[in-house]
Design brief:
Elements: H1 9-15, E1 73-77, E2 87-89, E3 108-110, E4 123-124, E5 131-132, H2 140-143, H3 162-178, E6 183-187, E7 196-200, E8 206-211, E9 217-224, H4 238-245, H5 255-265, E10 268-273, E11 278-285, H6 289-301, H7 307-325, H8 328-340, H9 354-359, H10 362-372, E12 378-384, H11 388-398, H12 411-417, E13 426-430, E14 437-444, H13 453-463, E15 465-467, H14 479-487, E16 492-499, E17 504-512, H15 518-534, H16 538-556, H17 560-573, H18 580-588, H19 592-602, E18 609-614, H20 622-627
Parallel strand pairs: 8-12, 13-18
Antiparallel strand pairs: 1-6, 2-3, 4-5, 7-8, 9-11, 9-12, 10-11, 14-17, 14-18, 15-16, 16-17
């Protein structure tokens, strides 16, 4: 692209010479521009909810109907040798004679595309068991359905599944060509590879599972809608302190007994706390799922909270705080939240202050459990080798004593009582002895259920992340990465998009060892953010959408723990499990105009929050960052 910096030394330095760049003056009229760039959305989506529909500036309704998440699809199998829709036998079969004996369940490949060429000698119809000559089915039967566009799909309520719709032309072709009614055959649903099941217990707790065929291990965990955000300034740090106390014994398990039991199972028991959620989970063998549920229910409901354990954990947490202080990125993002969400719950740290840790009492912990550890705010998630009905029965017995929602506080009430107000501001911790400078430039982002959540995810992927020590660092697709590499301006950078219940943070974090050229680093960062407003390229949007879908797939399929985390988070934030095909359809619906409208809303002429640590004397001042959010010559 013409605007990309060249990799040659002299040309690269000239590329960011601000003397030849357009001036950054305030536009004469910025308020009228906010009405531009609205993105049209298919009318089938405009029903009764505002989740993830992209329009500017007013959100509109969106239906939570699963896209492509269909039940079993019924198709028909014809008798012609050269045209059929059936089952292809894979070479890996359990029997010795593949031509005459049966196949194992792992040896069947269900297909519904006319252009599939099987790699075996014979194709089999599951009813007749008679071998048929392998002929390539003509493509015209399936192609008659026309191109498939996920954005044009209507809600699935009362509508045939898309695969059945695609199969109908083939059925007509088969029936008409043979002269007699074809035999029906039931196929597995192809697109939704894993089925999610959710059950709500009598006390309001939800149980969600995704079973993986042939898996031998499982992840079972409890996701709780409680974190540091729902604390006060006086008890900040209680949620994290309680996470430590959960492993210090219960009424029927001592600390040593709990550790020994987990080790004897060969299991992994862990927990973590964030600003809005707390999680306890265990990774176990298939046969030990009941033991995992029993352990989780015990540590969540019957934690002993002995005073001697409380005193011991004070020292552990204080040492943990000392270790965190050495992590520049952790400290930087804590300061970013503190300055962006001043005097609100999101502005407080997860660990709390050292004074709070020294003064937290057993009563503080018990009160926090009573207020926040209620059944409607908990989700029991099982992934891998789990059976849904069996896990529901285990949950009914293990978590039946959890208090219902009437005895605790709802998340909606807590958020409305302490909303996260974003404040454009600046905090800098100058330390000239540090070798590197780290800084963040962030804007107010979108909440989990905002119509702009997915476009911001795509915009984050457009900016990308980069590390000069990584292999292929000089060939990154992002323009910002090319700018950083060509001019040797940074060690690494990372675009981030953090969502919360009612707000978010969108921006860029940079780590660099340059000092005198910090103004150049700031320039390329703000220039990339400004390009999202005025000049997003279609090739960048396409690349970002593919990268985003790949990242989501790789993370979700990396382990049962990653899948469980995704399910638990979605049920707490969206109230439902979003099918992967639906999420991908929403990503594919993002266009260049969508990116431009979203960036216009969140970045153009908006006050950023800036946090910086290190030798920051050459970093431009706040007014320069603020004036770089718009272009007077647009």
């Amino acid at each position: 692209m013409a605007h990309r910096l060249a990799s040659l030394g002299g040309v690269a330095r000239r590329a960011i010479n601000r003397a030849s760049a357009q001036a950054f003056a305030r536009p004469y009229a910025s308020s009228s521009a906010h009405g531009q760039g609205a993105v049209a959305v298919d009318s089938a989506f405009q029903n009764d909810d505002a989740f993830l529909k992209w329009t500017t500036p007013e959100p509109q309704a969106f239906t939570h109907a699963g896209i492509l998440a269909s039940p079993a699809t019924k198709v028909r199998v014809g008798a012609r040798r050269d045209l059929f829709l059936g089952v292809i036998a894979l070479p890996a079969a359990r029997s010795r004679d593949r031509a005459t004996e049966g196949f194992s369940s792992a040896g069947w490949l269900f297909f519904a595309h006319a252009r599939v060429r099987p790699s075996v000698r014979r194709a089999w119809c599951p009813r007749s068991r008679a071998p048929r000559a392998r002929g390539r089915p003509p493509a015209r039967a399936l192609d008659a359905a026309g191109p498939f566009d996920a954005r044009s799909l209507p809600p699935l309520d009362g509508v045939d599944p898309p695969l059945a719709r695609l199969a109908r032309p083939r059925e007509r072709a088969l029936a008409g060509s043979i002269g007699r009614p074809p035999r029906p055959s039931v196929q597995r649903s192809i697109l939704p590879s894993v089925r999610s099941q959710v059950t709500t217990l009598a006390n309001g707790m939800r149980v969600a599972t995704e079973e993986t065929p042939f898996a031998e291990t499982a992840t079972v965990g409890v996701w709780i809608d409680a974190g540091s955000r729902y604390e006060t300034a006086a008890n900040n740090g209680t949620a994290h302190f309680l996470e430590h106390m959960a492993f210090k014994g219960t009424a029927k398990r001592t600390t040593a007994g709990l550790e020994e039991e987990v080790e004897n199972l060969g299991a992994h028991l862990n927990a973590y706390t964030s600003r809005e959620q707390t999680t306890y989970y265990a990774k176990v063998f298939k046969k030990d799922v009941p033991n995992a549920v029993d352990i989780l229910s015990d540590i969540l409901q019957n934690s002993s909270l002995e005073q001697r354990h409380i005193e011991r954990e004070r020292g552990v947490i204080l040492r943990e705080m000392e270790e965190v202080e050495k992590e520049v990125e952790e400290v930087l993002f804590d300061h970013l939240h503190a300055t962006a969400f001043q005097q609100t719950g999101l502005g407080r740290t997860i660990l709390g202050s050292a004074d709070n840790v020294r003064n937290i009492t057993k009563e503080n912990l018990s009160t926090y459990i009573k207020q926040h550890y209620t059944a409607p705010r908990m989700v029991l998630v099982g992934t891998g080798a789990v059976d849904h009905d069996a896990l529901v029965k285990l949950a009914e017995g293990a978590f039946s004593n959890l208090p219902s929602g009437d005895s605790g506080e709802s998340v909606r009430k807590l958020v409305s009582g302490d909303p996260a107000h974003f404040t454009g501001s600046d905090v800098r911790i100058r330390d000239d002895d540090m070798p590197n400078t780290s800084f963040c430039v962030a804007f107010k982002g979108a909440s989990w259920t905002s119509p702009d959540a997915v476009p911001l995810m795509v915009m984050q992927a457009m900016l990308g992340s980069w590390d000069k020590a990584a292999a292929g660092a000089g060939h990154a697709g992002s323009d910002l990465a090319q700018d950083m590499h060509s001019n040797n301006l940074a060690n690494s950078y990372m675009a981030f998009n953090t969502n919360y219940a009612d707000t978010g943070l969108f921006g860029v974090h940079v780590n660099t060892d340059v000092r005198e050229d910090l103004d150049d680093v700031a320039f390329v960062v703000m220039n990339s953010l400004r390009n999202l407003i005025y000049d997003p390229k279609i090739e960048d949007v396409t690349r970002a959408k593919q990268a985003l879908k790949s990242s989501l797939l790789l993370h979700g399929e990396s382990s049962t723990s990653a899948a469980a985390e995704e399910i638990g988070r979605q049920l707490l934030t969206y109230g439902r499990r979003i099918p992967r095909a639906e999420l991908f359809a929403r990503i594919d619906a993002v266009t260049v105009d969508t990116v431009k409208a979203t960036a216009w809303k969140y970045i153009r002429d908006e006050c950023p929050a800036i946090a910086a640590i290190g030798p920051t004397q050459f970093l431009p001042d706040y007014n320069w960052f603020r004036s770089s959010t718009y272009d007077n010559f647009y």
